[in-house]
Amino acid sequence: MLAGPPGNGKTTLAEAIAFALGVPFLTIRYDAVIDSYLGETSARLKRVFEFARSTPCVLFLDEFDALGKERGDVHETGEIKRVVSSLLLQMDDLPSYTVIVCASNHPELLDRAVWRRFQLRLELPMPTRADFRRWLEHVGADRKALGMDPAALARELEGGSYAEAEEFLLDVKRKIVLAKGVPKSIVSHQLKAWKKRFGPKAGVTGGNGDRDPAAQSE
Hints:
There is one protein chain. The protein is built from eleven helices and five strands; from the N terminus they run βαβααβαβαβαααααα. The protein is of the alpha/beta class. It has two domains: about 1-125, 3-Layer(aba) Sandwich (Rossmann fold), CATH 3.40.50.300; about 130-215. Strands 2-3-4-1-5 form a five-stranded parallel beta sheet, covered by helices on one side. The longest helix is centred in the last third of the chain and has 18 residues, at about 160-180. It starts with a strand and ends with a helix. The relative contact order is 0.13.
């Protein structure tokens, strides 16, 4: 079970597990599984799990709270409670060569019985400044490429997710190529938009130009 805010690598980690094991990566499409007719959702889930049992694979269920909701919730219908019960039975019947990976942005919504089905429960939190520093090194975003100290850029990116930081970096590289501009000025311009989006968490400066003291602490 992978839990944490969106954009921090839950799907990527699941794909990496399948790659490391050398098996197919199967993702359940909820729009093709969930149905308004009584019993149809459970029947479709059963067919999905039957296929997953037929070959070694990694079966990935993103946004797992859409299926594994707490059955004690008085606001839920009897149908979703039957779906959860059917889902748990199907998970129990999986062979050892089928790895099931589930991801949720809202683990607090999951049924209590879901948790014991997973041998590993990992939380993927929002990246810290140090995490961003290592990530920038990994993707080759150095001072020469960006015209800015990666440590300083990592400080500014703090408050966003990996996915948002990747989008920011791709946008910067695109503008550097298309505009043929000075990397440092382009990065500075893009950081202004980033600061408006994430506020103090991204290390914004105050009205007097001084950086927020909280953003200075490691």
